[in-house]
Design goal:
This protein is of the alpha/beta class and 300 residues long. 37% of the residues lie in helices and 11% in strands. The strands form two sheets. It has a six-stranded mixed beta sheet with strand order 3-5-4-6-8-7, sandwiched between helices. Helix 3 runs antiparallel to helix 6 (193-210). The structure holds uracil.
Length: 300
């Protein structure tokens, strides 16, 4: 490991790490000399010299942003100890999820990190529900009603989501509900990838604070962002994925991670009610895993 570093180089590398962190990339691993094939989503390969320099400049206590989750196994090339202690996000030192969510909300602040802040949003829609929920639903982004009320899923799609939750034998207050982006995209357009990438680290931190047993991704935007996979919704739904948000250490014994299920977005179901049956199958899979008996009426 070099003892002294050219200050220019040190500054440039530190800036690069922060840039990757801002994008949710948190893992760095040494690139094997002759190949790129081992690169994994959410990780950055660095060469031997860079690795040595990173080792030198990543001091314990330096703040690192969370990574995006990898839905399958954690990247095999990652060695958490490679660069010594990597600092936790502030909420990771508190065990109370209420306090943790408050810290994350404060960190989000009056966010101006992406263009959505200047495209007509009235307010940030952070999330709502039980901070200790076993079940969490993740949608795409606030619509007009959510933007007006500051709460996710309060419009027509929200009414349908409430009915889905009730059909499972639960109350809206039992679960936690959040979105990939926390500001309304103008005209309810799909959020752009860079908007999702900027905002999703906060969602990852919410999930890590709540530590649910199951996360249900509602629709393609949520599914693709949580899973970092680009398959169609039809291909993604109907099974569980092991899910640990970026930034949660594999050695964290307080939470093994969640199971993640993908299903149709309620707004899509309003347009195509024929998919309600498939959605109910996905929710039944979740209920079985959580040991929830459906109320008789919903079970038919
Ligand atoms: N659609 C979403 O994806 N999220 C909401 O909060 C409302 C509608």
């Amino acid at each position: 490991m070099p003892r002294t570093l050219d200050p220019e180089l040190r500054r440039a590398l530190a800036a690069r790490i922060r840039y990757y962190n801002e994008m949710g990339i948190y893992d760095f691993y040494r690139r094997p000399s002759s190949e790129h094939a081992g690169e994994v989503a959410g990780s950055i390969a660095v060469d031997e010299q860079e690795a040595n320099i990173l080792e030198h400049i990543l001091q314990p206590g330096e703040e690192m942003s969370p990574r995006k989750a990898t839905a399958v196994a954690r990247p095999i090339a990652v060695d958490e100890n490679m660069f010594g202690a990597i600092a936790l996000k502030p909420e990771q030192s508190v065990s109370d999820p209420v306090k943790a969510l408050k810290i994350i909300r404060e960190d989000l602040g009056d966010c101006t990190r992406c263009v959505l802040h200047k495209q007509g949003r009235k307010q940030i829609v952070f999330g709502v529900g039980n901070p200790k929920a076993e079940l969490m639903f993740v949608g795409e982004g606030p619509g007009a009603d959510e933007d007006a009320q500051g709460e996710p899923f309060v419009g027509r799609a929200g009414q349908l989501l409430n009915n889905m939750i009730k059909a499972m034998g639960l109350q809206r207050e039992d679960v936690y509900i959040a979105n990939v982006v926390k500001c309304r995209p103008p005209g309810n357009r799909t959020p752009e990838p860079d908007e999702c990438d900027t905002c999703s680290p906060f969602l990852m931190r919410q999930i890590a604070a709540i530590k649910p047993k199951v996360v249900v991704a509602l629709g393609a935007t949520a599914a693709k962002n949580l899973l970092a996979m680009n398959s169609s919704l039809g291909e993604l739904r109907g099974r569980f994925y092991d899910f640990k948000p970026a930034g949660v250490r594999s050695s964290d014994s307080s939470w093994p991670g969640a199971r993640l299920a993908v299903t149709y977005h309620p707004a899509y179901l309003l347009r195509d009610p024929r998919q309600k049956g498939e959605t109910w199958k996905d929710l039944q899979m979740v209920m079985k895993y959580l040991g929830i008996e459906p109320p008789k009426k919903a079970a038919e």
